[in-house]
């Protein structure tokens, strides 16, 4: 499956929760997604699970997918096994096979005694076992787990850890979010972080990367536009978290690490109404002044944009 230029905002004027997400979801892989509260992890997982659609961009090549949402709809009028049979049929299984697999997963999770209990009467932990079982019984090619371990007892967490490993061993892909940084520690094939509306690889987002970006080359963008046209102006959601200062003739000067300048330019140019870019200038590194000057030192690059 592939995400190309995917963005998601809630409401036509809402702030962008995700922007410009390009992602190849590999086959046979365990993928961890991290990020602070409210950064957009669940939003990304809903897009990956296919239960929400991007506001912009495209998702192609969707495999057979199952999803454990962050919140389970407990008010549905089913017993646990009735619900699992129903969901199994939605996943394309014949009814008796869906019931067999559902019952088996309830047994594995130590919840067989609640097979005939109505969903509304289940404890939170047992509801979560049912939520996880409905996804596992489908044996999907892509399994999306949004904090699926939360509320499970220790034994059930181990069963889910094993089930995830089995899915990947069978050639599936599991994408998960979990608040415990030790969850499946060391097993993930890829790690991503949602930050400032962007999806970054673990390497791009680590403290070392942040420090390198901050200490590395900076770019000064001089632009003209209506402050109100940038929904995220002045918030960390603006790519690269630029330093913003008034410039000459009513312009605004935005300084960002060079690694984020393209993303910031895109944000300015796609704002409504769009900003006009006056100039983009590489800022010399602060320690450059301490180095002996040479005649062939590169001059700061200054490039007015069309
Ligand atoms: N259905 C919705 N309607 C409006 N805004 C939403 C909706 N769902 C999420 N948001 C907003 O999108 C942003 C990202 O939310 P999301 O739930 O994706 O973050 P998260 O990283 O999963 O957070 P948490 O770690 O707290 O679960 C938040 O500002 C949230 O308020």
From TrEMBL:
Keyword ATP-binding among record annotations: yes
Record Gene3D superfamilies: P-loop containing nucleotide triphosphate hydrolases
Broad EC category: hydrolase
Keywords: ATP-binding, Hydrolase, Nucleotide-binding, Transport
The enzyme's E.C. designation: 3.6.3.25
Record InterPro entries: AAA+_ATPase, ABC_transporter-like_ATP-bd, ABC_Transporter_VariousFunc, P-loop_NTPase
SMART domains registered for this protein in UniProt: AAA
Keyword Nucleotide-binding: yes
Domain ABC transporter per the UniProt entry, residue ranges: 1-221
Domain of life: Bacteria
Identification of the protein by name: Sulfate/thiosulfate import ATP-binding protein CysA
Origin species: Streptomyces platensis
């Amino acid at each position: 499956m592939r995400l190309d230029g995917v963005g998601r905002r809630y409401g036509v004027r809402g702030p962008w929760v995700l922007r410009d997400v390009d992602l190849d979801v590999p086959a046979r892989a365990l993928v961890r997604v991290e990020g602070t509260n409210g950064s957009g992890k669940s939003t990304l997982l809903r897009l990956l699970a296919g239960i929400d659609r991007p506001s912009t961009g495209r998702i192609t090549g969707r495999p057979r997918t199952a999803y454990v949402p962050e919140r389970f709809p407990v008010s549905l009028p089913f017993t646990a096994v009735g619900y699992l049979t129903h969901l199994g049929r939605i996943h394309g299984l014949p009814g008796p096979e869906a019931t067999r697999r559902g019952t088996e997963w309830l047994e594995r999770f130590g919840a067989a005694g609640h097979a005939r209990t109505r969903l509304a009467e289940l404890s939170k932990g047992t509801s979560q076992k049912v939520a996880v079982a409905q996804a596992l019984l489908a044996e999907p090619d892509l399994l999306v787990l949004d904090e699926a371990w939360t509320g499970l007892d220790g034994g059930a967490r181990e069963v889910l850890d094993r089930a995830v490993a089995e899915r990947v061993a069978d050639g599936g892909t599991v994408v998960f979010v979990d608040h415990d940084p030790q969850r499946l520690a060391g097993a993930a094939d890829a790690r991503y972080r949602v930050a400032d509306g962007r999806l970054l690889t673990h390497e791009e987002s680590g403290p070392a990367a942040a420090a390198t970006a901050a200490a590395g080359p900076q770019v000064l963008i001089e632009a003209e536009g209506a402050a109100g046209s940038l929904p995220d102006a002045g918030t960390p959601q603006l790519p690269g978290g630029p330093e913003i200062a008034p410039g000459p003739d009513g312009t605004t000067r935005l300084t960002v690490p060079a690694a984020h300048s393209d993303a910031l330019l895109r944000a300015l140019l796609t704002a409504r109404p769009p900003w006009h870019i006056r100039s983009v200038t590489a800022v010399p590194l602060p320690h450059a002044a301490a180095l002996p000057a040479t005649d062939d030192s590169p001059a700061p690059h200054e490039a007015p944009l069309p």
